[in-house]
Amino acid sequence: MDMQAAQYGARLWLQTDAAFGLREVPLALPKPTVSSTGKITGRPVQTATVPGRSAYRPAPPVAPRAVAPPTPPSPARAMATPPAEFRRPAAHTLAGSQGADIPRTVKLPPIPDVPIDALEAISAADKASLLAELQQQVIAALTPHLSEIATKVVFGDGDPAAKLMFVGEGPGIEEDRTGIPFVGRSGQLLDKMIVAMGLNRKTVYIGNVVKLRAAEADPDTGRLRDRPPTPAEVALNIPWLHRQIEIIRPRVIVTLGAPALKYLTGTTEGISRLRGTWMTYRGVPLMPTYHPSFLLRAYTPENRAKVWGDLQQVMTKLGLPPAQPK
């Protein structure tokens, strides 16, 4: 990292601390590091053998080139071909995003209606073993859908008996590289938010709606860009998230961004309208707030203050002491 990039990153952290009412927020947690051989240290990571990856190889980017004016279609063909704005994207933009075999549309499984506190009690030790067992089941189930884009199953990270659980949308490129949720720029900002609450990453649990990275090629540049998961991809993944919550049984859930809010509550309202308003997931208090990636794109004092206000409500709900300016 050059000096200019380092200074820019430092300014981001300082501005975040100021927005949270804290002049200095120490980060005591070591960041995961990757050796020259690709080995990850600092946090545990799961591995899996990837069968038949060539079957999910995405099409290579196509370099821009001059295109001759199209020949007008015949009247019969014009009637059979919908306008471009109503046509689905070309199939090659989806191949390999989470496995070319996953359909684009499917009916979502219903949100379980059994309240979390009505489930049979689980000890902290049992939670850890059940979560480890579930992780192996998820890896086995999703490994056939791995590709050059989604190379790892990103299960979750944190305390199996956490009182606070954060739920995001899905892994990005850094999360896919490490197998750990929220370790890229958004994850670094989330770490700061958690520390500002008086907690740390080891005392909360962090998961996502989907466990595989969703991305597709930009039609203009050919470069990969992350995209929201399709309903079919959510349907494939979200039963595992429901089971994670049943095992962890947090006292409060914080959803980060619109997809997590939508798929855990079934609401059709936007995140801007509902953030900061208490909702519930199977009897568990749920606080919707903006995704850290949104804050990085719209890094305004107003947006940062809104998120910090949402987190302060969570702190009050959990009985955490208010953060004091330093």
What can you tell me about this protein's structure?
- The chain is α/β, with parallel strands linked by helices.
- The protein starts with a helix and ends in an 8-residue tail after the last helix.
- 35% of the residues lie in helices and 11% in strands.
- It contains 10 helices and 10 strands.
- A hairpin with a 2-residue loop joins strand 9 and strand 10.
- It is globular and about 50 Å long.
- Helix 3 (124-142) runs antiparallel to helix 6.
- It has helices spanning 3-19, 75-80, 124-142, 173-178, 185-196, 231-248, 258-265, 271-274, 292-297, 301-318, and strands at 33-34, 40-41, 157-158, 164-168, 205-208, 215-217, 224-226, 252-256, 279-281, 284-289.
Brief descriptors of the model:
single chain; 326 residues; alpha/beta; Uracil-DNA Glycosylase, subunit E; six-stranded mixed β-sheet; two-stranded antiparallel ribbon
Order of helices and strands: HEEHHEEHHEEEHEHHEEHH
The helix-and-strand class reads alpha/beta
What is the CATH architecture annotation of the domain at 121-318? 3-Layer(aba) Sandwich
The rounded distance between the terminal residues' Cα atoms is 30 Å
CATH class of the domain at 121-318: Alpha Beta
Q: For the residues shown, what is the average pLDDT? A: 78
What's the CATH H-level superfamily name of the domain at 121-318?
Uracil-DNA glycosylase-like domain
Biggest sheet, spatial arrangement of strands: 3-5-4-8-10-9
How does the major sheet shape up?
A: 6 strands, mixed
Shape verdict: globular
The number of distinct helices, counting runs of at least 4 residues, comes to 10
Strand content: 5-15%
- CATH topology name of the domain at 121-318, in short, is Uracil-DNA Glycosylase, subunit E
Which residues sit in consecutive blocks of at least 5 with pLDDT less than 50? Answer: 20-32, 43-62, 73-102
How many DSSP E strands?
10
Helical content stands at 25-40%
Rg (CA only):
21 Å
